[in-house]
Give the backbone structure.
Amino acid sequence: MNKKYFISLSIAAALTIGSLPTLGTTANAHSHSVEELQKQQEDISSKKEEINGKIDEKKSEINQNINKQQEIQSQIAEISTKLKDTETKITEKTKEIDETTAEINKLKEEIEVLKQKIEERNELLKERARAIQEKGGSANYLDVLLGADSFGDFINRVTAVNTIVSADKKIMDEQKRDQAELEKKQEEVEGKLAELESTKASLESLKKDLDSQKAKKADLFKQLEAQQASLEVEKKDLQKESDELSKMEHQLEGEIQAEQARLAELARQREIERKRQAEAEAAKRAAEQQQATASSNSGGGSSSAAPAPSAPSAPVSAGAWTAPAYGTITTNFGWDTLNGKQRYHYGTDIAARGSVPISAAADGYVIKSQYSSSYGNVVYITHSINGQTFTTVYAHMASSSVSSGQAVNKGDRIGYMGNTGYSFGQHLHFELHAGSWNASKSNAVNPRQYINF
């Protein structure tokens, strides 16, 4: 909040309080006091509205910040879940790699054994080949067969030779098969290990990325927490300014009511004085009448009647009240329909064409004369009738000829009928309140109870 603005309003309010007069001073000395107080109140209300708007903005920003924090927390939880799942998979892959590595180590041992067997077979085959080569190859087998002593011996020799040849062939087949199986098994295991290593590397890369994301989200969450704390402080400061303005607004409202009460008291004292003067005038006229009657009876000189007072510009009803304007009653007090909607009408509307003067409905003091978006040019007057306070309202006027604090008599012209504010055609909206005026219009009464339109 602008400190100079706050101080200036405080000083203005203080000066206003100090400058309020006693009931004994003249009304003209206070002709603008209510308007000045209301202007200060409007300034404060405007500033308060601006501050409250900023408070709403801060609340919105705080809510957005909290939503972002919740979103970040949700994302962090999701990342944590992925991290946990990834770490589990890494553990599983590490276990598989360990098992595969153990399998490879075992396979290596088997390979070494197999290599030993292959080596031994190679040596056996080499020995067999050398023996065949040294003895002339296949001819030796023929000599063996031909050297048989009998047919049975021949059959035995043939069987023996076949067995030797088959054994050699079996050794050769086993050699080929074992070598192929060794190569295949080694290739499969190495491929599996490479695949596991690749999967583990991908998982570790994913974990590293998730760790980085989680760290960034955590950092962003801290920033949002700090931002929220700052917004809360700003909102608190704004709320403090708003509370201060509310206090000033309440104080000014009290001052306005006090000024209105002062004017109402002036109206009451004025009524008392008017009645005292009226009684004195009546007593004086009665005494003069008695004297005139006595002179007439004693044959005294003739007397002439007192001159008649000049007539007012517009007829004024007898009694405490008079109609505020002439014209046609277009809307009475109570329920009616406006633009197709039911509403409660708190006054009486009087419509007429041309330049139509508006008069004070009774003796009193002007509380305020101002312009509002709803009432247009409007005048509020406080009255004291038989000790009771009344307030009359004259709205939608084309212009006003009175100001706050001004004393008016019943029938005095206060302005002209118009079509200002929330109005649909030239008319006077007239309200009568048994007590003070308030925004809820709880004191409004039907003007026809007091005034003959």
Summary: The radius of gyration is 58 Å.
